[in-house]
Amino acid sequence: MKEDKELQQFRDLMRTPDHWEDGFGIKAMLGAVFVGLIMTPASMYMQLVVGQDVGTAAQWVTIILFIEVARRSFTQLSRPEIYVLYYMAGASIVYVGQGGLLWQQFMVQSETFRQFGIADKIPSWVAPSDPQILGQRSFFNSAWLTPIGLMAIGMFLQRLDHFGLGYVMYRITSDVERLPFPMAPVGAMGVTALADASGGQETWRWRVFSFGAMLGMVFTVVYAALPAVSGAFLPEPISIFPIPFKDLTGNTETFLPAMPVMISFDLGLLISGMVLPFWAMVGSVVGLTVCVIANPVLYHYGFLHNWRPGVGAIRTLNSNVLDFYFSFGLGLTAAIAIIGFWHVFGGLLKKKRDIDEAGIAGAVSWKNLFKPPAGRGDISIWIGLGIYVFSTLSTIVMAYLLLDNAHRNGLGSPITWSLIGIFAFYGFIYTPIISYVSARMEGIVGMSVQIPFVREATFILAGYQGAAIWFAPFPAQNYGAQTLYFRQTELTGTKISSMLKAEAFIFPIVLIATLIFSQFIWSIAPVPSSAFPYADQFWELNAFRQGLIYSSTLPGGEGGPFFQAWQPMLFFVGLSIALFCYAGLSALGLPVLLVYGVIRGLDQSTPHVILPQFIGALFGRFYFSKRYGDRWPQYRVVFFAGYTCGVGLVMMLSLGLVFMSKSVFQSTF
To answer: pTM (2 decimals)?
Structure first.
């Protein structure tokens, strides 16, 4: 299967510099305080309200602010300083869905988890289950000390782990094998644009970035800020566009039964479709079209037998997952993993020869593993391996102690040496293998490899009884994607040691900010509730998907919901269809990204996202590309960076108004 030409365009956007500078200093320290106090709560709030990660927006907002402050102080920020600020703003992002304290309090109160019989089997080290404690909506309670402590340990190991096996894989794939990493320039281009602006250079990058920022600001005022701010001051929020989508399932169910029809009005999805590879977007809409045709047929022949008219999009998704898409989707994702392994192992020598002939990479030299480029700020490869061993051993020890505690409290099976051996296998054998495969995929085509159902299948086959094992740390990791961040650091001329300093400085700030603002958000209203539209719509859906799996290890779970949803035949049908699509498209010489797009569309997990992204891809391909020619690949990356910055600026302002109003209205005088 031929490589998409867009990947070549991406990899040619930037070249590796010949020197690197330290970007961590007093400016970075001030930036860390700023992102902890402003970006962390903004990220949490946007995920709950609109379901979008403010991460990229938070990064650009931070950089813009500090550039303007530097200008008025008659100084400027270097590219490495800007990148360190960019990195720290990203490190401040806290994911509140399926993780974090807000999700943990939701799980023990989830109606879906109650129906699956899981809610009362969640250990106290995850969240207290006492209704009186939960009714206080406060994390500042002694019952929350253990969950908060485990959160702190987990965040520390996660930060430390960034410089473990992921760094080792970066050294192997970038320094030794010299893979091109086609997607790395995408993140580095925006930093370059702002570095030019900081130096007073009015380049095309800054103009394009500014246009994108203005569009993001105008749209976000109407789309997200208006309902958020009006909801803080009025009994009912004023919404021009439905958030996160408009549910049209009730209007189409007569001729499209069992098909969730949802339309998103988020302009950001359309713009992201211009940036993402075109053939991946085409494949997604092809897969979605197949679902539109197939779902009514599956319903007619009794495969989607749990669906009923009038239940809406979310419950339609739930019933379809239970009846068909759980097993079918696992087959699709398994096919992605197989294709990834085929690319790495089956075509390894051919791909390497093609890259060498194209002059993109030099000859493989393992000496580079121990002798990195001078001045890049690398740490010893042995330190990276030591960090990996330490974090893996710590994870295994924590899992043993927590599961032993659950057993002593009657919430799980006793811990056996075979289970500890399984954890060690995944930590020290599986993790390095999958990380290397994924790192090579990232370095060649800009995509990672994930093997689905590894953790779930392990727990089920191990014979463990109880729900506690699902909440314990598991040492199976995939560090392949981490190589991309190190490559971006290299392209921006930033010393890697700067990142290490930044992580050490920002960790306590983000930890404290996460706890304080989790408490503040929970005090505003129950989470989820109508005050947080996205969480109100999707958290129970996410709990349903998790509950299906968690129920498999409950006592007597052999006839439970999981084994109703798990149908091996459908798994192999999904696997076969995906592999057949890959073989057919490969025979036709079509781009590899088309296959990934088709599989994504067939999964039916994000139907409201695919259509606007496809429309954006069409605009980019057939209008803007013709208008701007060879400049379009660079324009679209910088424009999208500016758009996310504009979104972030407006959301920061609206978030401040919401927080102030809730503080005043709920204060006791």
So the answer is: 0.74
